[in-house]
Amino acid sequence: MITRAVGLVFGAAATLIGRLRYAQKFFVVGLVLLLPLGFVAAAYVELQRDQVAFSAKERDGVACLAPLAHLASRVAQARHVAVTGDGGSVVLDREISTVDAVNRRLTSILGTGDAWAGARGLIIAAQSATGPASERYEGYNAAMQSILDLIVRVGDASNLTLDPDIDSYYLMDTLQFRLPVVLDNAGRSADLAVLAASAPASARTDALIDLGLTNGVLTATRATVARAVATIMAKTADSGVRLDTGASFRRLDDAMARLTATLAAAVKDRRPGDIPADVSDAVRVAATDFAAQAATSLDRLLRVRIDGFSGRAERVELATGLAALLAAYLFVGFYLSVAWPIRRIMATLHAVAGGDLTRRVAVDTRDELSSVARALNETVARTEAATNRLAQQATHDTLTGLPNRALVLDRLEQALTRSRRDGTLMAVLFIDLDRFKPINDSLGHHTGDEVLIEIAGRLTTISRGGDTVARLAGDEFVVICPDLVVPDTATGTADLIMTDLSRPIMVGTGAAAREVTVGASVGIAFADQTGDQTPEDLVRDADVAMYQAKQRGRGRVVIFNETLRTAVELRLRTQEELRHAITGGQIRPHFQPIVDGVTASVVGFEALARWQHPARGLLGPGDFIELAEETGLIVPLGAEILAQACARTVRWQQHQPGLRVAVNVASAQLADPSFASTVAAVLAETGLEAHALSLEITETTLMADTNAAAETLRAIAALGVRLELDDFGTGYSSMTYLRRFPVQALKIDRSFVAGIGHDREDEAIVEMILNLAQVLDLRVVAEGVETADQLARLRRLGCPLMQGFYFGRPMPAEQIDDFLRAPQPILS
Predict the structure, then answer these.
(1) H helix runs in 520-559, sequence order
(2) Do 445 and 306 have their domain in common?
């Protein structure tokens, strides 16, 4: 049976090879083996050359960024002189000439000529302005902004923002994004202090708010630079870079600490005149020195990287050449060791066929041909028909770091080829982290990056020497396990992965250090020997198994089988059921009360989606929202929830006027060009007044496409609908969104509310948000209130609105009527 199967599979190849002479056979086999070797080597060398070109362009960007950073520093100095009128004027001719020279050399590469021309014109215009100090200040602001925009453009055009190495990436990020902000805002703080001190009392409050915001930017940027420097110090192998970066940062950090403390005291005491110019000037000088050092260090790291790429390319070229020569030499020897004995055997056979039974064949090899020769000699000696048996066996013949998806598929293709050729067992492990998204959302992407780096290191340590560990995307990892002896080896590796990834991970440094814990769900797919599987098939099957592990409660290992394929088909059916549920009235909102922080009376509700499935009963958002977002069904689903919530609120307002309703909005809804018109149509159809509707948007939703989101939110705000920033405080861009988007209310994230009473940091954050909202005239809702102690503390802090299980869980609309008829306030 096995022989027949082998014959069916390899019969065509045997027939083709059988038509060739041995010289041709060896030529074809050698060509088939050497051509892929040459192709792979050439592709690798070409990849290294591309990396050299990529890094060389980064060096061009660094060469352009350094003088631009110095120019920004001088423009900030000139702006201050223009505002104060002290010291005449700052001449920028030398700095402009330096950038001119760099621009002439690199504009054809980076395409920054027009942008520099515009910035140059604004700088010259600011220098020549003769109006009041406030006008000269704005002129220099425009010039400074053009320089900052040019710095960002240079980084994008020179590949710096795509830098693949941790240490050089954070050096780039500090040089391109952080230090220019420090230069601008440090100088701006002194300028604003001068303007505020000379402003009338009616305008001084606005100036103090601007000073407070500037101080917030400096404080946040200082923390970001500190984290970047910590990463650089931990990851770079260059001791000189570590020494220089640490020294530069310490000087800058000391200067910024003095400046932010001075600003905070001046704003608190409402005395902007207490801000001396030399404090901000010290920050500017330190930031300028840091920028120069960062540019030098970054250039040094890039030179080392280029040397590494070039060296690897040369070594591969040399090794490939030697391998080709050796292969050719061995193939010739192999051919001669086979061809010559065969000629002797053939000659003997012809002689025997001619009747010469005394003919013998002499073969001096020690392989199968000598057995053939002996058998032939025995046959001739017994005057029996000669038998000829020839056996041929196929001989069978392994990036540091984590490759991306494209390279994984390439390596998987090679592993599959080896597996089929060698008859060995091979498995793919698909790993998805558990509880990673809450860490990313609550602690920030920098913390998520720390977690992913640690996970990658643990996976590399756990895996065998010949395994390939890769990260596909986000928190998804793959481990390719070739050459397995038994399947238990793969499952044992998966168990080790789950155990090791469940250990706590320390993130942050110093006082900000904390432990986080994730976990992993693992799917395993084994390669078969049919030859029909593709790398994509194996990854898909392992992914399906991993998803099933998630469905079974996370922290599990599941091996792919046909039953899981059926489960995938079930998911597709669920998708179709969800589509019909949206149009068939099965999607219904449940409502959670929002209460007055002082009286605990109900002022409104948040509408939360539920699915009344005809067979599975009431399903929460965890059962279908992710599927809806993945398939785009979240847009019609969200519209349905919005329409029902508005209609119900109109009914309730007949008995309790003034009730409001809040509805969550997904990123896909904001990206939908018709979303604003959908909101307007729902308001018109239900009769709900626009100010009684709030739309809750998370920072993650806004980050999906900030430009499209800004346009849509402006259109919605024009209708009179309130916009609330949900989960406020968990993202590092929240302050930016307050200025960019027409937000009218903040929802304090439940993670901070949960810490009230036992976590001083969380309570300080809640108090800060409340103070900020009061200054900016924003409403605040604290969500996740679950205890009387939390209620009492929030009341003492002056929180106006609250929401949580303490006041009521989400309820179907039918129960809200009874809920509203209950005594008010609800805690009485």
Answers:
(1) 535-551
(2) no
Tell me the pLDDT band of 260, cut-offs 50, 70 and 90.
confident
The tens digit of pLDDT for each residue in 17-75 reads: 655 566 566 666 666 666 777 777 788 778 878 888 888 888 888 888 888 888 888 88
The better pLDDT of the pair 187, 337 is held by 187
Q: Specify whether the CB–CB gap between 591 and 811 falls below 8 A.
A: yes
The tokens describing 641, both together, are: 């929830």
Going by pLDDT thresholds of 50, 70 and 90, the confidence category of residue 692 is very high
Per residue in 622-651, pLDDT (tens digit) is: 888 888 887 788 899 999 999 999 999 999
Name residue 526's amino acid. Answer: F
Residue 399 placed within a domain: no
- Report CA torsion sign: 262, 264, 265, 271: positive
| 115 and 254 fall within a common domain | yes
Residue 356 is encoded by which pair of tokens?
């010469």
724-750 as b/e: b if 16+ CB within 10 A: bbbbbbbbeebbebbeebebbbbbbbb
Q: What is the CATH number of the domain that holds 796?
A: 3.20.20.450
> Helices (DSSP H) in 654-749: which residue ranges?
667-671, 675-686, 699-704, 706-718, 734-740
**How far apart, in whole angstroms, are the C-alpha atoms of residue 444 and residue 350?**
83
pTM over 0.85: no
Residues 533 and 659 in one domain: no
User: Where is mean pLDDT largest: 25-39, 76-90, 411-425?
Assistant: 411-425
- What secondary structure letter does DSSP report for 386? P
541 and 639 in a single domain? The answer is: no
Tell which of 314, 349, 370 closes a domain.
Answer: 314
State how far the Cα of 521 lies from the Cα of 476, in Å rounded to an integer: 10
770: number of Cβ within 10 Å: 20
Taking each helix axis from N to C end, the angle separating 201-235 and 239-269, rounded to the nearest 10 degrees, works out to: 160
The amino acid that residue 603 corresponds to is V
pLDDT beyond 50 at 796? yes
Strand pairing category for 468-473 and 476-484 = antiparallel
Identity of residue 28:
V
Phi-psi region of 402 (alpha: psi -120 to 50; beta: other; left: phi over 0): beta
What local confidence, expressed as pLDDT, does residue 371 receive?
66
pLDDT above 70 for 286: yes
Number of neighbours of residue 473 by Cβ within 10 angstroms? 8
Give the domain range for residue 94.
46-314
The DSSP line for 167-200 is: HHHHHHHIIIIIHHHHHHHHHHHHHHHHHHHHS-
- Helices 133-157 and 22-84, packing angle to 10 deg: 170
Are 153 and 256 found together in one domain?
Answer: yes
Q: Are both 551 and 676 inside the same structural domain?
A: no
Euclidean distance between the first and final Cα of the chain, in Å? 84
**Within its chain, how far is the Cα of 123 from the centroid?**
37
Q: Are 178 and 228 in contact (CB under 8 A)?
A: yes
pLDDT digits (tens, 9 = 90+) for 362-398: 666 666 666 666 676 777 776 544 333 222 222 222 3
- 3-state per-residue secondary structure call for 72-96: HHHHHHHHHHHHHCCCCCCCCHHHH
CB 601 within 8 A of CB 656: no
